[in-house]
């Protein structure tokens, strides 16, 4: 990592930390005044808007905080020097981690415990003995040293391959174990349906308004011309998979593999090969990736594109004197443009940061003295970056023109012009005030602490270690700015939910992992016992996270069951022989995207709510259709 830093990075960090601490205090005071914060019967409750978070203030909670504090002070203070300096402190270190892991493992895999008993004492003793033995330089500690050395000797291609396979395994595992192989998220169903529509050669559904009034289409305009409200980036990626008869989840799974692989590439470039392994381990245990990566939604695909942009363009910012590769510049522009065409607001946040970064570097260079960078930018960077951006931009505008009728008007704006907006308003059906934005940000912070990495000691602790150690080099400043920009823009966005976590910030997951990796990198770069112990600790934390994810998967059971019923019913009537109308009840009306519209030689099929049957039977377009009712 290039450590070229501002004149006073410590002052910047202190200022930001002070403002953040003051904001938290003021927010807690506000919550207390409005009964959004309470402590009652050993339970801490925090209400961030419509979302609430509860913390049981017992011995387990205290140990988790103690473990987080120890992790922070160790890696932020002594991480570069290896493990704690004497045998007693090493034993305490491993005892605390073993105790916290045991409590988390017991509570998440084997059922919650409500008291501290003999099990905790046993875990602490075993942990202390393990720490004592594993760090003996002439004993079992040799295994840790060999592990650390092996991690640094591993060929880079093998780490990248392991990252790809891990990403694929996690996204597929999330789809299978958490979502029951059901694509029940309406967003995914809508984009799958639109991909099928494009495969028929149409951009809009060829329906009359009376027929559109009775036909169920997930998240599509309710008036004609009708089409999905989602932009085309992910839809176009779905088309080859749909045409080949694969589920939409295939694209999401493949994107998850590239996401982890690309993040490991960047981690190795910044922090060494052991950091590549650590990154793969963190991703493997991330509940966020397990949950979102198994939904067939477009977040994972967009995150992979933005990580590709980072891998292509971050070296240009860190080392502006190096002659840039045209192919790398074009690829970065193509990936960023495709991300904008997939999730426009997310892509806009990242694009604004990249544009501002290049502008600042040029202005600083011109102020000091003309440099190679200022001569390279106009001739060899900007034109090729624009060339990469033009291709997806042209595709995006062409798609908009064929759907909404205006190249710069997105389907979001047409489908729900009052809901898909930014900013504050005091009037309307749903007012949106600054306090709502603050509530959304804090709710995301609380949720990310649990779901980002799933660590028993809190997911933010690794990023805080980075914050303590960083000197804000160019690369780190870019990563930090990307986080701030995306959080800020989505705080202005009216829609918000935590059903699968703070998904509007999912694309920041690889960046947050990279920052955590930079924070603990000195222990990994030292090699030997320190690197081996760090990898072992990360592995244990991730293993417990995976256990918690898989044993608490009943959150989506009702939606899984609805999807399974729909699948079983459709399997019982397929293959369809004639044009068919399927009468469905309300719980199934958003699960039909993967069957509609018909493609290839499939006979037409329409899904109609039972309550609209009489109106549908009167339509001439549906004369001669077979009518079947889903039981």
List its salient traits.
mainly alpha, 3-stranded parallel beta sheet, 6 strands, 5% strand, 3-stranded antiparallel beta sheet, 631 residues, disordered N terminus
Walkthrough of the structure:
64% of the residues lie in helices and 5% in strands. The chain is mostly helical and 631 residues long. It has a three-stranded antiparallel β-sheet with strand order 1-2-3. A hairpin with a 2-residue loop joins strand 1 (37-40) and strand 2 (43-48). Helix 14 (326-342) runs parallel beside helix 16 (372-403), helix 19 packs across helix 21 (509-526) and helix 21 (509-526) packs antiparallel against helix 22. The protein starts with 8 loop residues before the first helix and ends with a strand. The model is unreliable at 2-6, 80-84 and 107-120 (pLDDT under 50).
- Structural classification: mainly alpha
Order of helices and strands: HEEEHHHHHHHHHHHHHHHHHHHHHHEEHE
Based on CA inertia axes, which overall geometry fits? globular
Using the CA coordinates, give the radius of gyration: 26 Å
Give, in spatial order, the strands making up the sheet with the most strands.
1-2-3
E-strand count = 6
User: What portion of the residues fall into strands of 2 or more residues?
Assistant: under 5%
**Average pLDDT:** 85
**Low-confidence stretches at least 5 residues in length (pLDDT < 50)?**
2-6, 80-84, 107-120
Largest sheet: 3 strands, antiparallel
| Separation of the first and last Cα atoms | 61 Å
Percent of residues in helical segments? Answer: 55-70%
Figure out the total of helices.
Answer: 24
């Amino acid at each position: 990592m290039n450590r070229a830093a501002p004149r006073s990075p410590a002052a910047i960090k202190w200022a930001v930390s002070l403002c953040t601490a003051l904001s938290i205090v003021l927010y807690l005071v506000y919550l207390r005044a409005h009964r959004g914060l309470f402590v009652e019967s050993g339970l801490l409750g925090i209400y961030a808007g419509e979302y609430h978070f509860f913390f049981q203030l017992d011995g387990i909670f205290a140990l988790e905080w103690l473990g987080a504090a120890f992790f922070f002070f160790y890696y932020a203070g002594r991480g570069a020097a290896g493990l704690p300096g004497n045998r007693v402190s090493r034993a305490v270190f491993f005892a605390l981690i073993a105790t916290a892991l045991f409590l988390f493992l017991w509570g998440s895999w084997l059922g919650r415990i409500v008291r501290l008993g003999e099990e905790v004492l046993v875990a602490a003793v075993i942990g202390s003995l393990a720490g004592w033995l594993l760090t003996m330089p002439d004993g079992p500690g040799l295994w840790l040293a060999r592990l650390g050395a092996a991690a640094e000797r591993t060929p880079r291609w093998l780490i990248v391959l392991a990252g790809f396979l891990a990403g694929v395994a996690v996204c597929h595992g999330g789809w299978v174990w958490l979502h029951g192989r059901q694509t029940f998220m309406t967003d995914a169903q809508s984009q799958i349906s639109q991909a099928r529509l494009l495969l028929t050669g149409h951009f809009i559904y060829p329906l009359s308004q009376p027929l559109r009034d009775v036909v169920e289409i997930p998240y599509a305009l309710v008036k004609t011309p009708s089409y999905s409200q989602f932009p085309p980036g992910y839809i176009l990626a779905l088309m080859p998979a749909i045409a080949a008869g694969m589920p939409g989840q295939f694209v999401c799974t493949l994107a998850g593999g590239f996401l982890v692989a690309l993040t490991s590439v960047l981690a190795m470039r910044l922090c060494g090969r052991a950091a590549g392994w650590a990154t793969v381990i963190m991703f493997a245990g991330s509940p966020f990736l397990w949950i979102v990566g198994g939904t067939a939604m477009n977040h994972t695909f967009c995150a992979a594109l933005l990580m590709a942009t980072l891998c292509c363009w971050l070296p240009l910012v860190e080392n502006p004197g190096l002659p840039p590769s045209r192919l790398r510049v074009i690829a970065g522009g193509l990936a960023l443009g495709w991300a904008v065409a997939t999730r426009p607001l997310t892509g806009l946040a990242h694009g604004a940061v990249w544009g501002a970064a290049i502008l600042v570097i040029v202005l600083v260079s011109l102020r000091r003295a003309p440099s190679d960078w200022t001569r390279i930018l106009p001739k060899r960077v900007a034109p090729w970056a624009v060339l990469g951006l033009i291709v997806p931009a042209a595709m995006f505008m062409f798609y908009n023109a064929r759907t909404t009728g205006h190249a710069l008007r997105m389907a979001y704006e047409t489908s729900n012009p009052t809901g898909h907006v930014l900013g504050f308003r005091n009037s309307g059906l749903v007012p949106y005030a600054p306090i709502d934005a603050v509530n959304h940000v804090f709710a995301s912070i609380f949720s990310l602490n649990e779901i980002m990495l799933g660590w028993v000691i809190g997911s933010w602790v690794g990023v805080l270690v980075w914050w303590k150690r960083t000197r804000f080099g160019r690369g780190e400043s870019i990563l930090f700015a990307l986080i701030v920009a995306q959080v800020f823009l989505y705080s202005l966005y009216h829609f918000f939910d935590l059903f699968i976590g703070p998904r509007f910030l999912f694309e920041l997951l690889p960046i947050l992992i990279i920052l955590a990796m930079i924070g603990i990198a000195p222990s990994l770069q030292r090699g030997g016992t320190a690197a081996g112990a760090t990898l072992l600790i990360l592995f244990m934390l991730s293993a417990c996270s995976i256990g918690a994810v898989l044993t608490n998967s009943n959150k989506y059971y009702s939606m899984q069951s609805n999807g399974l019923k729909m699948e079983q019913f459709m399997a019982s009537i397929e293959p369809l022989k004639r044009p068919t109308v399927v009468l469905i009840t309300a719980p199934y009306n958003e699960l039909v995207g993967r069957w509609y519209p018909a493609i290839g030689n499939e006979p037409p099929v329409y899904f109609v709510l039972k309550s609209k049957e009489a109106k549908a039977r009167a339509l001439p377009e549906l004369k001669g259709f077979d009518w079947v009712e889903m039981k």
